[in-house]
Backbone:
């Protein structure tokens, strides 16, 4: 149990019958960055990116979920290919006052 000062401001304890309009929102962004050979071809999530240093700046999916982000770099001559797969998981929990 909380102290009387904290408890008196708990759910319904403040405002004396008036409707409260207090809200709180939180989001997150993901920045993925990397580098490879200057003339290599890079794709992130199957979308072609610029050659050389590359970055993906995107909002995380709003609902709790797992996002899979494949990144593929192909050598300038097209002979070699490297793949890295990132998995990002968002878990959000709202705590009661």
Residues:
């Amino acid at each position: 149990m909380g102290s009387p000062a904290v408890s008196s401001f708990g759910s319904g304890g403040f405002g004396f019958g008036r409707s409260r309009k207090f809200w709180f929102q939180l989001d997150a962004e993901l920045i993925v960055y990397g580098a490879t050979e200057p003339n290599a071809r890079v794709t992130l999530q199957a979308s072609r990116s610029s050659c050389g240093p590359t970055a993906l700046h995107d909002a995380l999916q709003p609902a709790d979920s797992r996002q899979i982000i494949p990144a593929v770099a192909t050598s300038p001559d097209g002979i070699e290919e490297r793949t890295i797969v990132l998995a990002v998981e968002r878990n959000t929990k709202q705590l009661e006052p």
Remarks:
- The longest helix spans residues 4-7.
- Residues 23 and 94 are 12 Å apart (CA to CA).
- The two ends are 12 Å apart (CA to CA).
- Helices lie at 4-7.
